[in-house]
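STRUCTURE:
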């Protein structure tokens, strides 16, 4: 799948500590390769049509939309 990032995602990403940015990068690679990878723990966000959540670590999560064959990081 192709991965794109909304401007808001990029802005928040820049504010993260470097150690967390590295974890985010790793999880994005996993997301592109295998949406169902166990470490992502992907879940659909209730009450939304195409918005999902993936785990970065115990404290951090990221949300994304699936539109066609692309993933848009929120």
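SEQUENCE:
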């Amino acid at each position: 799948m192709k991965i794109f990032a909304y401007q808001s995602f990029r802005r928040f990403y820049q504010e993260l500590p470097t150690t967390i940015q590295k974890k985010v990068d790793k999880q994005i690679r996993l997301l592109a390769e295998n949406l169902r990878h166990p470490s992502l723990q992907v879940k659909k966000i209730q009450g939304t049509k195409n918005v999902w959540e993936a785990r970065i670590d115990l404290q951090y999560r990221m949300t994304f939309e699936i539109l066609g064959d692309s993933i848009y990081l929120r």
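REMARK: The first strand starts at residue 2 and ends at 5.
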